[in-house]
UniProtKB/TrEMBL annotation:
This is EF hand family protein. InterPro entries: EF-hand-dom_pair (IPR011992), EFCB6 (IPR052603). The lineage of its organism: Eukaryota, Metamonada, Parabasalia, Tritrichomonadida, Tritrichomonadidae. It comes from the Eukaryota.
Length: 259
């Protein structure tokens, strides 16, 4: 008697257990025990093995943020990786992950990089990052309104916007000081570090009685955009007005006028 995956000793043990005579084995009893005990155990084990492992919370957060960036850039995630995958096997070296994502302006913390590499480690080659699995999760993810409200944004073309907004902020600071007011007064009911609707920001800014062109207000709203829903980072705005250090200038001329 032979059985795949079983040693001769195990086969003999089963034969002895179900033996009813020197020449006969209780085959029906063996099949009944398989149905009652072995098959349910096997199905349970298979389900457990096929169940995807739970990801690190850091990984989930990174995937959400990166998905949002890809939507803004209208970029397919696979396009970032294929150039580093000459064999087209769906993997790249783990050591390349951070630089690949940074090529799109997305920076990982050391902890985030470690979590991604652990959660998307290739099952055959542990030194490889399975970008195909990573991209599949990105493509399947649907961002909710809550997701969009929690994802912070950064201004595009920062150097150009910095100079324009710095001039506006400095002008606002001087005019508020002329009225002997403080920039945070109309924002006192809002939570520091949290965004506010653009309508509330406009209302607070208008309370100073300043005449600001609509185009300039739109520049400020765009620069201090807090999330994908268009909320405004009023706290950073107030801090920049108070300190008049909105940006790091490359031009000494701009630095001179803001002193």
């Amino acid at each position: 008697m032979a059985a795949p995956g079983l040693s001769d000793a195990e086969v003999n043990l089963i034969s002895d257990y179900y033996k009813v005579s020197q020449q006969q084995i209780n085959y029906n009893g063996f099949l009944l025990d398989l149905d009652q005990y072995v098959i349910p155990l096997y199905e349970s084990l298979k389900e457990h093995l096929n169940k995807p492992s739970e990801q690190h919370p850091e990984t989930t957060n990174v995937v959400r943020r990166f998905k949002s960036l890809l939507m803004d850039q209208r970029t397919a995630p696979e396009d970032l990786f294929v150039r580093y995958d000459s064999l087209k096997c769906g993997t790249v070296l783990k050591t390349r992950l951070a630089s690949i994502l940074e090529s799109l302006g997305f920076r990982l913390t050391p902890v985030e990089e470690q979590c991604l590499n652990e959660d998307f480690q290739d099952s055959r080659l542990p030194e490889m990052f399975n970008y195909r699995k990573f991209c599949q999760q990105l493509n399947e993810m649907q961002l909710t309104v809550q997701d969009l409200s929690q994802i912070r944004t950064k201004p595009i073309n920062a150097n150009v916007q910095d100079r324009e907004v710095a001039t506006l902020v400095n002008s606002i600071r001087e005019r508020i000081q002329e009225r002997r007011k403080r920039v945070r007064e109309p924002f006192s009911d809002f939570q520091p570090g949290a965004g506010i609707p653009s309508s509330d920001f406009r209302r607070a800014l208008n309370s100073f009685g300043l005449v600001i062109k609509e185009n300039d207000i739109l520049k400020i709203l765009k620069y201090y955009r807090f999330n994908r829903q268009g909320d405004v980072d009023w706290d950073s705005f107030c801090n920049d007005v108070e300190t008049s250090k909105t940006v790091q200038f490359q031009s000494k001329i701009f630095a001179f006028f803001l002193c």
